Every structure is written in C-alpha cells, then in structure tokens.
UniProtKB/TrEMBL annotation:
Taxonomic placement: Bacteria, Bacillati, Actinomycetota, Actinomycetes, Micrococcales
HAMAP family: GlgE
Identification of the protein by name: Alpha-1,4-glucan:maltose-1-phosphate maltosyltransferase
Annotated site (Transition state stabilizer): D475
Gene that produces this protein: glgE
Entry keyword set: Carbohydrate metabolism, Glycosyltransferase, Transferase
Length: 670
C-alpha cells in the first residue's frame, strides 16, 4: 500500500497572504474606515500569466470581490486595497487563477508584431471571447462588445494591422473585473477583526481632575478640585479639538507610605499622594475619591464630556496601596516576603513604597472575576476607554482572557496598553487584544530615528498594533522637550498629530512646561504627588505663552483630511538636510467621501535650535502624481500657497515656523 502525502500547494500556488500576525493563533485587526492592503504571492510554472482575486465576506454577509494588482515586477506579489467600513469579523481569501486572456494578449502582441502566427493568434483570442460570451453571469452589454471583437478578429478580409489594434481594445478591460479564470485555486480562509473607529483614530488629552479648580488656602492646606470643577475644563479641551479625555486614577488614595512632593518619602499633611496608590478607608477600585465628589458627580462629568463629543478614558491600574480593602480581604493577591511584609512596587531605580503589585499566580480566577467586575462597573458609569497602567507586569493570558470577555459583551470598549518595555511584550499585548499601545515615539527625535520608527509602526506591525503617539506624560519629559524650547513642543505635536491617526498630550504641554526634576526625565513638582492648578487663560491671553491655538489647528486639520486618519499610508521623501524630515500621507479619491484624492505633505525641522534651508525631493508617484509635473500646495497653518514639483526649496526657522503641513490643492494633468 502506497501512502500519499497530502498536497497543499494548489494548482496555482497562493502563499504569504497578509494581513497576518507573526503568530497565527491570533487574528489581525483593523478599525472602521481603515484602508487595508491585502497581499499575496501568486505564481505558476512556466510563462503563462496568472491573476489574483481578493474575496471578502463582511460581518453582515455581503460578499465583495476585488481584483488584485501586481506589485514590483519579478516579486509575484499582488495587492488590493479595501476600505473596511463595517465592524465585526470579516472572512477573506485570495483566489489565484490562470489568466488566459492576459496570456493571449501578451503573446499575441509579440507574435503579431513579429509577423508570426497572426491568424492563429487571432483565432485563439476569438475562441477565448466566445467562452466569455457564453457565461450568462457576464453583463449583456459586455457580452455584445466581446461578440463584436471576436467577429472582427476572425474577419480575414481585414488587414492584420487593423485586427492588431483589437488586442489592445479597452473593451477587453472587462476581464480585469470579471476574468476568464481557469485552474482557480483558493488560499485558506482567513479572518480580520474590524473594531470601531475610536480604536484606531483619536486625539487624547490627559488631566488630573483634582488639579482643576484646586485652591491653596491661607493655612497652606489645599481644597481639591472636583468632578464639577474639572467639568469646566472640558470646554477648553473640546475647543482644542480633543475627543478623548484620559483621567489618571480617581479612586481613594492610601495613607500608608504616602509619597510627598517629587516622590519623597516624607509626605506632609497637605500632600494628596499619588493617585496610583489606590485604595483606602473610602474603598478601592470601584470607588471615587471623596474629595472629587460622588459617583453621581462622575456620571455628570461623563455626560458633559459626551455632550461636547468627548469620550472618557479611565486609568485601570491593577495595584493597591497598603490600605486597599484587598490587602485585608485577599492577602493571597500579593507577594509575601520572608520577613512577613508585602513586596512593594519597583522599577529600578524608581521605588514605589506606597504601592503593592498584585500577584496573579495564587488566585487567578478570583482576580479575573474581580477585575471583570470592576471594569463592568465603570462601563456602567459611561466609561468607554481604559488606559491600562503597566500591563507588561501582568500575565499575558490574564489580559487575553479579560479583554476577550469584555469585548464579547461590549465590543466598542477600547483598551490602551501603557507598556514601555521590550518589543516582544509590547507586540504580544497588542496581539492578544489591546486596541492601542504606547510606543517609543517619545524617545525618537532625529530624522533617522523617526523614519525608522514610523516605518515600523505603519508597515511592520500595523496588522495588529496601533500606536498612540503621546508627546509627553506625567512620567516622561524627554531631554528634547527640556532643552528644545517652544520649537521642540511645536515640532513634536506636529509630527504626532499627522504621522499616526491617534496621538495625545498631557496637560501642561501647551504651556511649554519643560523643567525637569534634577537627574530625572520627568517634570519637577510632578503632578502625580501634588495639586497643580494652571492658569491657562492667563498664559494664552496675557502672557501670550500657549500652544493651545496650534493644538486646535492640528486637530482641525486632522478632522478635515481623511488621509491623516490612516496608519499605513505614510511615505518618506528625501531632503538634503539631515535635520529636515519629510513625509506624506495620501488617500485615493475612491476612499474619500467627496471622491477627490487627499494628500498631505509634512516638512519638519527636527532641530529646535536652528534655521534650516534645504531642498526637498518628492516621490510624486507615491502621492498619486505624475513625475515631472508642477502642482500647487497650501500651508494649512498659514494659508500660504506655492507651486511645487519634484524638487522644492524650503526654509524652516525653528524660532518662528519649524514645520509645514501642506495640502496638495491642485494638480493639473496629474
């Protein structure tokens, strides 16, 4: 008896299909309205032509077929770009086939032009068209045109030259949409999860509610801001165009080992403590700090935000102060040291004596159920987004299970992973369910660093990992911002807002807060440990020292230009200066609401200390334009217009206008 090994290749091999994950246990994802490039390697033996068709089934059952186009010659790679506009799980596969019409057109053109087998080639073509006409699913008008071409090919009274033009007849483009396919071979069926648009597109603003409206009394004590006073800040946030407000933990704060100003161990009676030291006599993760108000006050805050078009993102920090109810009720959820104490949190050289990390190994079921209950509780209060603190210090399987359970019941809830850690863990968190991820963006500042980083997040990991380009955080004030002055803030905001669909700022960024704690990469007088009310109006109206207007312009540009709502479409262009970064974001008209191409070109001087003059060299084909043409661009910040082409002079003064955000407004004969 002969055992036959199963044949997996297929008659027309279809391999290396994407989107795909590095690990096939998890499926790729996209967000509503994202244009996704589907690709596959399709080839065959010999020299006959092949074709490829992408077949998608939407969550509602609609079947779409999209002819794939070849990429670089000789690679056998094929691509079809599709805008995925329905949330849920899509199913798709790629069909490779023997493209007989393409083979005939190629061979017939060569042979007829060489005076070889002309009549034979005409007859072969006519018979192919006869077969196509016999397909009753083909439109009647197309069948009539093909019948006429077949007859003309067989018209021996006509000259060879007259019939030669029929090989290139535009009517034969009918076969691009409806090919005469033979030896069709399907790839395996694949899935892609499309999540709601906010999972991939948003402008985030972070602030501490306790600082908004906080007042220092005559005796040196403080009166905390509340949800009611914080709600007054929402109008200004909305005016800047932000659509997500992220709140650090709003829960009761422990007293034991409470931290004082600048992370000191000797907290005074007026020090409010770190919001991340969660839990006290007033409750734990399901409670609000009494100084902020009540749950009803929080719900009113959420309603006010919603009325302004803002969603609330709440911090989910799975840790506890020594005073958290968990410590007494569930000691098995923490790590006991040999001396009988509980291990506190550390991230050397940083120490967090006011925080106990959770141990997930002794009672994983109990912890899962408790966290599930907590998140359900806040969803019931109107929270739609959770920014997860340090998820990389918790088991991966915990997050996979938790997010899957929550998204099954609440598919619109978004989780952002605050994981500044090694790539393997960052990427794995995204694969198992996190919709968004913090990234290394804050530490990528040179032209070379930014090109490498943005290429990676837009091309290499875009099938599963969506970066949220925060420019600063309470913990991160980079040297670039410390010493770069207002130009550094302007440049970082410009790049973050235009290079990726999701970006964010922490309150105070618009005031150019740049003084760091000596020897640290975080702001001095850190808001994590004290009240920090800011007079935004005075800074803007009296001192003239605010970036708020510019942040609003950036968000308005984002809302007006759909090309900026895509992650995968960034392309880099050359400049003759190593400090001038140039990139474009282009979206074809077939994917825009008005049917017109949308193209943005960003030119940024990433050296915040100088004036740069250089020549920018554009790859016009990458932005849908014909190389060599002239076209008009408009600076969307200043309104200035220029005529541009392949090579263009720019002057970027870090002290006045360090960046251009250009819109291609007119491209004659493109």
């Amino acid at each position: 008896m002969v055992t036959t090994h199963p044949v997996l290749a297929g008659r027309i091999p279809v391999t290396r299909v994407t989107p795909a994950l590095p690990d096939p246990r998890w499926r790729p994802k996209a967000y509503e309205g994202e244009v996704v490039p589907f690709r596959a390697t399709v080839f065959r033996e010999g020299h006959d032509q092949v074709g490829a068709m992408l077949v998608l089934t939407s969550p509602s059952g609609t079947v779409l077929s999209e002819r794939m186009s070849p990429l670089a010659a000789g690679t056998d790679r094929w691509e079809a770009k599709v805008l995925l506009g329905e949330t849920g799980v899509w199913h798709w596969h790629v069909t490779g086939f023997d493209d007989e019409v393409a083979t005939w057109r190629h061979d017939a053109a060569l042979k007829v032009d060489a005076g070889v087998d002309a009549e034979l080639m005409f007859e072969i073509g006519a018979r192919l068209l006869d077969r196509a006409v016999a397909e009753k699913t083909r439109p009647l008008a197309a069948r009539k045109r093909l019948t006429a071409i077949a007859a003309a090919l067989r018209e021996t009274a006509a000259s060879v030259a007259d019939r030669r033009v029929l090989i290139d007849d535009p009517s034969l483009d009918e076969f691009l949409e409806r090919p005469l396919a033979r030896l069709a071979t399907d790839s395996p069926e694949h899935e892609i999860l499309v999540e709601r648009r906010r999972a991939g597109v948003g402008s985030w603003y972070e602030f501490f509610p306790r600082s908004e409206g906080a007042k220092q009394l005559k005796d040196g004590s403080w009166k905390s801001g509340t949800f009611r006073t914080a709600a007054k800040r929402l109008d200004a946030v909305a005016a800047m165009g932000f659509d997500v407000v992220y709140l650090p933990p709003i829960h009761p704060i422990g007293l034991t080992n409470r931290k004082g100003r600048n992370n000191t161990l000797d907290a005074g009676p007026n020090d409010p403590g770190s919001p991340w030291a969660i839990g006290g006599a007033a409750g734990g993760h399901d409670a609000v700090h009494p100084d902020l108000g009540t749950l009803a006050d929080f719900r009113a805050f959420v309603r006010r935000a919603s009325a302004l078009g803002i969603e609330i993102a709440l911090d989910l920090a799975l840790q506890a102060s020594p005073d958290h109810p968990w410590v007494a009720e569930h000691p098995e959820w923490f790590t006991q040291l040999p001396d009988g104490t509980i291990r506190f949190a550390e991230n050397p050289p940083k120490k967090y004596q006011d925080i106990y990390p959770v141990n997930f190994d002794d009672d994983p079921e109990g912890l899962h159920d408790e966290v599930l209950r907590i998140v359900h509780h806040w969803i019931a209060q109107g929270v739609t987004i959770f920014r997860v603190d340090n998820p990389h210090t918790k088991p991966l399987q915990f997050w996979e299970r938790l997010i899957a359970a929550l998204n099954a019941e609440h598919p619109g809830v978004v989780f952002l992973a605050e994981a500044f850690t090694r790539p393997a863990m960052m990427q794995a968190l995204a694969m198992v369910g996190f919709q968004q991820s913090y990234s290394y963006f804050t530490w990528r500042n040179t032209k070379e660093e930014l090109e490498e980083f943005l290429t990676s997040v837009s091309q290499e990991t875009a099938d599963f990992m969506r970066p949220n380009l925060f420019v600063n955080t309470p913990d991160i004030l980079t040297e670039y911002l410390q010493f770069g002055g207002p130009a550094a803030f302007t440049v970082r905001a410009t790049i973050a807002a235009t290079a990726a669909p999701t970006w964010g700022v922490y309150s105070g960024f618009e005031l150019f807060e740049s003084v760091a704690r000596p020897g640290a990469e975080e702001a001095i007088d850190n808001e994590k440990y004290e009240y920090k009310p800011r007079d935004f109006a005075a800074a803007e109206q009296v001192e003239g020292r605010s970036l708020a207007l510019y942040l609003g312009i950036l968000n308005a540009i984002r809302n007006a230009h759909p090309a900026l709502g895509q992650l995968r479409n960034i392309r880099f262009h050359a400049s003759d200066d190593d400090a001038v970064l140039v990139y474009s974001k282009h979206l074809e008209g077939r994917f825009t609401a008005d049917g017109v191409d949308d193209t943005i070109i960003v030119v940024a001087n990433v050296d915040p200390h100088s004036v740069r003059e250089t020549t920018v060299h554009l790859d016009l084909a990458a932005i849908g334009l014909t190389p060599g043409i002239r076209f008009e661009v408009e600076d969307l910040v200043t309104g200035h217009r220029w005529e541009w082409g392949d090579a263009n002079y720019v002057r970027l003064d870090a002290f006045t206008r360090p960046a251009h955000i250009l819109h291609v407004v007119r491209a004659p004969n493109a």
